[in-house]
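Let us begin with a simple case.
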Amino acid sequence: VVTVQPLGEDDALVAVLSNDTGEDWSTTVHARRLSYAGTEHAGIRAEVTVPARGTVRVALDPSVASPDVATHEFVIVDADEARGARYFAEQRDSALPAHAVHVATAAAPGGTAVTLTAEAFVRDATLLVDKVSPHAQASYALITLLPGESATILVRHEGETLDAVGVRYKGSIG
């Protein structure tokens, strides 16, 4: 798990990596300050090892942790498949682009694999699958995607494979 949090008296941003497994986790941390349009303004990389069932804090350089325009930028930290984000402004005050997400579906064991591909920045995408099928459950929610990135979510349900139009419009992408 990766989170980005203010820490200490000066509220300096740190990336906190938590390892809930029984093995040490060695990874490269990539922290970036990006615009919602996808432009990288600053970035750092650090090699870390998180002990089994432990946490490690990585201080973020002020160039990453301080925005030029708070309503247009955010910090994202990636470590292997884990991702954390910190926004400088509330969502309602942010200059977020309009959602532009391509949705594709395919049959999968136990349900439907739904792949979301972002054409623009997507903050906290969630499939509201209970609108399509009352007992459906999505394997992931609150997914942040950068332009060009994809994520596949397993929607567990009974019956026929869900179609992309139904997921996108009846089910909604929030």
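The second case is a distinct protein. As before, the sequence precedes its structure tokens.
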Amino acid sequence: LSLAAQRVPLSRERKVKLLTRQLFSDAYAAAHPDEVLAHLGRLGADRAGVRGVLQHLTASTVHDTVRRLRSVQAPTLVLHGRLDRMVSVANAQLLAERIPRATLALVDGAGHLPLLEQPLPVRALILDWMAEQGPLPPGRPLSPVLAAAEPWTRVFGLQAGAARTWASNWHPGR
């Protein structure tokens, strides 16, 4: 069982160690311990409440948009740390394979937060990718019905996504 399931209280030091291992590469954590603590402090200051955590867990487990990835019209840069322990590189590869006009950029030596670990190389990656894209043509317009419904998707996005996922599980051919 996980420590959370066993309700084992964790010391601050243990929490820091666990989070550091999940979010940062070992090399970065060893070379920049003060920066890691500063980053964790900022992340902790913006920590979601119980409701936010539950909504995130629900979105992570119920809201499945994989079937809609092929409908993404914009060029997309999928940026991922090669040493990410929180989200598998296979997930980034799946996104890049399914999104038309996607480019996969794996950041060597970076964990889950490549922009924090390697800001200058990541900045260069993003700027180079953007320069390659050039001016973008407009995307396909939404149908009148979808255009009218679009503002409501912002309000009910998670609920609509959960309903879509439920429907696609019952109708796999759709």
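The chain has a mean pLDDT of 84. The two ends are 37 Å apart (CA to CA).
Keep these points in mind for the review questions at the end of the chapter.
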